[in-house]
Amino acid sequence: MKISSINKALCIAGIVTIPAFASAEQNIDEENVERIEVTGSRIKRAEMESASPVTVIDAAEISMSGISNVENLLQEMSFSAGVAGNATNAYWTSGGYGTAQVNLRGLGIKRTLVLFNGRRVVGGGTGANSSVDLNMIPTSMIERIEVLKDGASAIYGADAVAGVVNIITKKEFDGAELSVKAGITDEDDGENQDVSLTLGGNFDRGNAVLSLSYTNTEAVRQSDRVDCPKFGDENGEFHCFGSSTTVGGRALLADGRGVQFNQDPNGDGDFFEDYDSEKHGFDYFPYLNAVSPMERINISSFVNYELNDSINLFTEAMYTKRKGEQIVTPRRLTGVQVAADFLYNPTGQDLELNSRRNVELGAPFFFQETDTIRIVLGLEGEFTNGWYWDVAYNYGRNTGTDGWTFDIDPAAAAQTLDDSICTYDNSNGIPCGDWFGIDELSPEVIDHVKYRREGTGGNEMRTWTVNIGGDLFDLPAGTLAFAAGAERRWEDGWRDPDSTVLRNGQEDAISGSFDVTEAYVELSVPLLADLPLVQNLTAEMAARYSDYSTVGDETTYKLGITWQVYDGLMIRGVKSTAFRAPVITELFGGTNGENLRTIDPCENASGTIAANCLADGVPADFLQDGTTVLTNVGGNPELGAESADTTTVGIVWEPQLVEGLSTTLDYFNIEIEDSITSVNGSDSLKLCYEDPAGNADFCDTFTRHPVTRQINELNQRPVNAAVEKVSGVDFNIVYKFDMFGLSAKTNLDITRLLDHESKPFAGQPTIDKVGFITEDQGSYTEWRSNFNVTLAADDWSATYSLRYIGEADDVNGGDFDPQGKSVDAIFYSDIQAGYQVNDALHLSAGIDNLFDEAAPYLTSWNDANTDVMTYDLLGRRGFVKATYRF
């Protein structure tokens, strides 16, 4: 059955469908519709009616959008929230640089299950990673993406708490197709190229497909889009500020003074003066990416071979290599004690070298290289009674290397500041160093402290699955259908940090594994049919038993109802339970120190927070040094599974008086208990100073410097403590019609987020994210929407797309900067067009952010003074694409 048939069936069934951009000539053979499996159920159906809401994005839309990464498309949909991957994130995140993920409902990447042709995929990254890297999947091979917006643990097992993304590839292809795409921004940067070649052919008993693809995306610096980080003063004027890790270095003297050493390359090498953050701050902005560069090569093959009339052999093989390299700020040296009589110490006092930005070493690059393979071998067939079955082995392995082109060994640097160890003439190979002022370091000192930092790691998954399904017997209202199956899965993850990093205790090795045994059964039970106001009423029931070697056994359930009132009206609903077992990093991850974005609430504090800060010894005029805090993250072997209750209720209406019109309205509610969470640093600090007694747990997570009162360390580890709740409403309307001899289609998706709450610990206050933009977790605006209108003729089509992001407030207030405490609603417009030159050649082009809408300004210390995880920092950009079939 052609994909056009699938789209037609989806609309008839009332499942939310994103518009296709294929030619208007799409013929539907409704007399010979085969049974197919739809995401959300293992039962194959002739009609795609489902109790669960599903969004389908087809190959034509992906092609016309000009995207190089599935993540970008999914994160722009109204059902997404928060942050997923980090192509636009300048800092290290739990997924690792360059990885691409999806975050349904803003519940986190770990709670969205990603499948590939209905089967699990190995985690991707550079070691012990917890989610699939969507980079590994070539867009040229995608037939469609089905997004199940409902908990589905009873069908697919753990992780399907927020929903499921099922990426389905082209199984059959005959001929050869070459596709070439190039894009660039209005600023003549951000160049990207895609080249793919697909070869396929039929033989006597089957079909084979081979795909080769190459993708390259160039970097864009944030400093090329925004002048500098800005904050408002009392008069509403803006000024730039710099990092407190300064060129030349700053220190805390024994007499309590904070001083800055010489920053003038031609100045007095022994000069120092009182530290002034505005005068001495380091301009770090040129070292942050708006887009991180990435290069990817993929080879994929799919073979189907008919062993006999009832048994088919199928194979899937995929290899992906991904390389990335991002600029990093010059390395820093912090917290080293230096004696007053050290020869190079110009102050005459004992001191603590607080923070020095070592520009003499240059700016390193953070690099990563990953290799991912996936092999599926299986058999599928049909018994004489019509029951279908399949058995498959699924193997995936991901290995990676990452690090800095160079880093500073802090232990070696400390040696060069202790003349009981180092020598001023370098006679013992450990030279004493002049770290006081710019350009004072000798080549020998630089060589002693500088090293290439490199860590390795990987993930491995092995899975056996068996499924069977079919019709059991007839009931008065129809046929009772079933599906059942079992799965046995093993997963391993490891991470081996650089030896110097290990020696200095900056990061611990990770090694862990688990195995799981699962079995499920699913029933489709027709209850009533052919009655007044009940054309048919069907119950969908499922149960799944899962036994994990780490957290024990769990059983999940699903009960769904589809009530077809009459031909144009259906009411549907699902009540289900879900769970998520902790991943390897959450269980076995050792301590890893990361400089994470953190806001100290004691700066510009007022009211209760100000009083509690003073009581903690933080002065009223306190200013936070920089925007990041050293945060210890890691695992917790005592974690258990988290559980969830999910509810969706919806209505599907296709008014018979308006041909081509279909609408859906769905309410969703997800409540998670024993949530595996680690409260981010900013929230931990804020909760502590709001109520030090009631929130004592948070006050134990950090320490302050005894003199400066700066936060010098913060701990952030996962626990089973939180209760989370997300609810909202999805609305979709699709209208197909003819106009002036053209085929037209409009599609509108709207999501209204009602609740997005979490309670970190019992008895603690509830954190509500609805209507807020966070400093490091993305946006949770109340309203998001996508609108598309497509016009198509026999040989051309054109689409206009409008993306809406509603107004929101800065989670950190903005009393000291009213101009940035909230942002207005914003619209992004895209246009695409395609032309079929002849039977072989198709040309397309598009412009994203057509009106060059600028990202809104925020008070919080976000990158580029905006939420780069939500808003478009690149500006207007375009692409051209040519596809040749031969």
What is the CATH level 1 assignment of the largest domain? Mainly Beta
Overall shape: it is globular
CATH architectural arrangement of the largest domain: Beta Barrel
Instruction: Give the N-to-C terminal Cα separation.
Output: 23 Å
Report the average pLDDT across residues. Answer: 85
Tell me the number of helical segments per DSSP (H or I, 4 or more residues long): 12
Q: CATH H-level name of the largest domain... which superfamily?
A: TonB-dependent receptor, beta-barrel domain
Q: Assess the beta-strand content as a share of residues.
A: over 45%
For this structure, the CATH topology of the largest domain is: Maltoporin, Chain A
Search tags:
single chain; 886 residues; mainly beta; Maltoporin, Chain A; 3 domains; 22-stranded antiparallel β-barrel; 6-stranded mixed beta sheet; 12 helices; 46 strands; 48% strand; globular; disordered N terminus
Question: In a nutshell, what does this entry contain?
Answer:
This protein has twelve helices and 46 strands. The protein is mostly beta strands and 886 residues long. The strands form seven sheets. It has a 22-stranded antiparallel barrel. Strands 12, 13, 14, 15, 19 and 20 form a six-stranded mixed β-sheet that branches.
Task: Describe the protein.
- It is built from 12 helices and 46 strands.
- It has 886 residues and is mainly beta.
- Strand 17 (294-306) and strand 18 (311-327) form a beta hairpin.
- Residues 1-34 and 86-96 have low confidence and may be disordered.
- Helix content is 9%, strand content 48%.
- The chain has a 22-stranded antiparallel barrel.
- It has 3 domains: 3-228 and 290-329 and 366-408 and 454-591 and 634-678 and 717-885, TonB-dependent receptor, beta-barrel domain (Maltoporin, Chain A), CATH 2.40.170; 230-288 and 330-360 and 409-453, no CATH class; 592-633 and 679-716, no CATH class.
